[in-house]
C-alpha cells in the first residue's frame, strides 16, 4: 500500500490519554479544518486506540495517528495492538517507543517493518543522541528527539541540540524528518522550534491545559506555518 | 456507573487478533442476533481496540469486550489502553492477564479497580490453581481458568480440574463466575464444558478456522444454552 | 531441602544497589556479629547477586538474601536469575516483587514455587492491601507491606495500617510473617514499628546514608530486639 | 578504567543457566587452562551472576562474563544487576540483549554506556540484520548475530549470511568484532564458522550436553584456533 507523504512543516497534536470520546473528537475536527486551510502542511492527531475510528470517520485532512502499534501479524496476540486493525480504523501513522512506553529493540524493528508493509507512517521517539542514531538506521519516517530530562519542564530544546540531532540523524539517512517537541507550551515555542530547524513539532498539555484548547491548537498550527514560510 | 449483570451460561467469542474490520464486524452481528435469541445468556465478543467502536455501534445485545485494559487514569500514559476511552467506545467488559499478555500483579490490581469504577466487567485469566486463588481475592467478575499446558492442544479441561477450580475460587469469593475454555473446538466441547460445571466458555480458532465461522458460532452458543438448560 | 526458620522479631538490612564489594561485605560482617549476639532474632542481609557468595562465605549467623529470583529451572534462561545458582552461592532467602521490580503474577507464582522446592525463604512485597491479600494466598514466608506512597518519604506506616494489614493477611494464612518498613530512618522508627505489631522491619538508606552506617545498623537491630522483648 | 583487548579468534563458552556451582567452576578451570595454552585467543566464560565471583577467583586467563547487566548506577535498583557489583566480582564482559532477554533500546544504550565507563566489554546480540546495524551505531565491542529462526536447530549460519552481516556492521563501525554462533554443536561447526569469516564463535548445549563437556570445550577452542591460523 502507498504511504502518505509527510509535508514540511508538520504539526502533531498529541493529547496522549488526556482526552477521549467527544471532547477529543471536537478538537480533532478543529485540527481537520486547520489541515484543510494549510494544505502545505501535514497535521497529525493522535488518539487512544478505541477513538481512532470515530476520528477517522469524522475527518478528511488530518493524519490519524495511533499512540503505539505492535509488530504482530493477524493471529494470536491477545491484548496487543494489531496493525491491520489500526489501518482498518483509518490510522495512517503511529508513534513508537515513546518515553512513556519504551520498546525492546526487536519490537521496534518488527513494528517499523509491519508499518512499512501496510503503508503506515512511523514516528519513532529517541531520548538521547545515541538512540536517535540507532533508530535512524531503521529509516522511520519521523524521529522525535525528546531528551528525557526536558519532558514536562516547559523548557524547549535549544538551537545547538536541534542542529546536532539533525546532523546526526541525516548522516545516517537524509530522508528522515525530524521532530522536536520538548517543552512546547506556547505558539511562540512552536515558532522558535521550527525556526531553529525542526521539520515539525507538536504539543500535548500545552493544548489540553490551555484556557481555550481549540484556540491554542489553531495558534500553534499557524505558528508552525509562519515560521516555515519565513525561512 | 452500574455494571451489566453476567448471566449463566455465558459464551465468549474471542477472535483475538485473527479478525478485524469488516470480517469481524459481520461475525459480531451474528453473535448479536444469537444474543437477542437467547436473552437468558450473556454473549461476549472481544475485538482489537480500534474495532470496538464500530462493533458497539452496530450491535445491541452482545457485551462488547476489550482484550486488555491498563489501570491508568486520563492524563499521560501514551501508548497505553485508557479505560475511559474503551468505555466511551462502548466496551462494557475487558480481559486482563491473558496468557498472551501476562500482567504484573500491581497492574492487575489497578486495572480491576479502574474497571469497577467505570462499570466495566473483568474477565481475569489464571493459568494455574495458585493464580486462580490469588486472583479470586480481587473479586473480578469472571475468572478464566486456562492451564497453559492445554492451550492450543485441542484438549479440554477435564471434570476433575473444573470441579477443583470451581471449589478453590468459590472458597475465596462465591460470586465470581468461572469460565473454562481450554481446547474448545466444537459445539460438543462447549456442551461438555458447561455440563461439567463451568459457568461459561468461549472459543477462538475453533470458530475463526471453521469451514463456516458463522455456523460454528451459532452452534456453540446453542450448545452452551442447551447444556445449561439440561442441568 | 529444609528451610530456615524465621524468628521474631526479624530485621532486614537491605542496601539495595547502594553498596557492593568490600563496603557491603564489611557491614554484612557487622550484621553477622549482631546476629550472633541476638540468637532469638533473624537478621537478613540482602546483596546484589554477584556479592552473595563472598558474603555467604564470610558470615555464619545472618540469612543471606537475594534481591530477586526468577522462577526458572536449570536450562536456558540467559540473563535471568537461576534459583540453584543463588542457593549454591549461599543465599537462603530472596525478595520478590519489590516496588522497584514489580513482577507478573505468573512469575511470582513460579518463583515462590521454586523457592519452596529449594528451601529458600520468600519475602514478597505488596504495595496495597489488595496485593497483600492476593499474595497471602501463595503462602510466602514473609510479606512486606510497603504502601508505594510512603516509600522514600521518611514517613512510617501508622498503627492502624499495620493492624489492618496484619489482620487481612492472617485471615488468609496465619503463618505468614509480616514486615513493615516504609520510611524507617532511625532506631526509634524501628522500635515503634515492632511495638505496633510488625513481626519484622528493615532499612535501606537510613543505614547507608547514616553518619556511621555500622552504628546505625547495630542500633536498629538492638531497637528491634528491645521492642519485641517489651511486648 | 581500561578495558581488556579482545583477540581474534575468540571463543565464548556460554552455559547459560544449564550449569552453576561446582560443575560450572570445574569447566571454567578447563577453559582457563585452554586460555593459558592459547594466549593469541580470547576465551570468554559466562556464568550466572552469583557464580561470577568464585569463577573469577579461581581463574586467571579467561574473561569472566555476565549474562546481562542493567544500565543502573549505585543507588536504588532493587533486583537489578548493578554494573559495579559485577566488576567487583571480577566480571570483565557482559552479554546484552540476548534473545532470551530482549532489552528496550534505552536500556541497551544505558548498559553499553555504563560498561564503557567501567571497562566492561559488551557482547550485544542481534537477531536480524536490521538490529545488527542499529546496534552497531552504539559501538559495542562484539555483536553476536544470531538469526532467531536458527537458534536451537543445530543449523549454522551460512557463508552468505556471515558475509552480509560482517559487511553491514563494518560499514557502520569497522572496530566491532563479529560473533556467529547459531547452531554450533561440534568442533567442525566451530572450524567452519571461523573459516567463513566470523571473528569468534561460541557454544552452549553443544558443550553442556556433550558426552564429555570438558573434551568438547577443549576441541572447540582448538578448532577455533586452527581455523584462524589456517586463514
Automatic annotation (TrEMBL), chains A, B, C, D:
Record bears the keyword Calcium: no
Organism superkingdom: Bacteria
EC number: 5.3.1.1
InterPro entries assigned: Aldolase_TIM, TIM_sf, Triosephosphate_isomerase
GO molecular function: triose-phosphate isomerase activity
One Pfam short name: TIM
Top class in the EC scheme: isomerase
Record keywords: Isomerase
The protein's name: Triose-phosphate isomerase
The species this protein was found in: Fundicoccus ignavus
Amino acid at each position: 500500500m502507498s504511504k502518505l507523504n509527510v509535508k514540511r512543516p508538520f504539526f502533531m497534536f498529541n493529547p496522549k490519554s488526556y482526552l477521549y470520546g467527544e471532547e477529543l473528537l471536537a478538537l480533532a475536527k478543529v485540527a481537520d479544518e486547520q489541515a484543510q486551510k494549510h494544505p502545505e502542511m501535514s497535521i497529525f492527531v493522535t488518539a487512544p486506540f478505541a477513538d481512532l475510528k470515530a476520528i477517522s470517520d469524522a475527518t478528511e485532512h488530518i493524519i490519524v495517528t495511533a499512540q503505539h502499534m505492535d509488530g504482530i501479524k493477524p493471529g494470536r496476540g491477545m491484548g496487543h495492538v494489531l496493525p491491520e486493525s489500526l489501518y482498518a480504523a483509518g490510522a495512517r501513522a503511529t508513534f513508537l517507543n515513546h518515553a512513556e512506553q519504551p520498546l525492546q529493540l526487536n519490537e521496534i524493528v518488527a513494528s517499523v517493518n509491519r508499518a512499512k508493509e501496510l503503508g503506515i507512517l512511523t514516528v519513532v521517539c529517541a531520548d538521547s543522541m545515541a538512540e536517535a542514531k540507532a533508530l535512524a538506521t531503521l529509516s522511520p519516517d519521523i524521529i522525535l528527539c525528546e531528551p528525557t530530562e526536558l519532558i514536562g519542564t516547559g523548557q524547549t530544546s535549544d538551537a545547538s541540540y536541534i542542529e546536532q540531532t539533525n546532523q546526526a540523524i541525516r548522516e545516517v539517512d537524509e530522508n528522515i524528518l525530524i521532530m522536536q517537541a520538548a517543552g512546547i507550551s506556547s505558539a511562540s515555542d512552536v515558532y522558535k522550534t521550527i525556526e531553529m530547524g525542526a521539520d515539525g513539532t507538536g504539543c500535548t498539555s500545552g493544548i489540553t491545559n490551555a484556557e481555550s484548547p481549540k484556540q491554542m491548537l489553531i495558534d500553534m498550527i499557524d505558528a508552525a506555518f509562519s515560521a516555515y514560510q519565513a525561512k
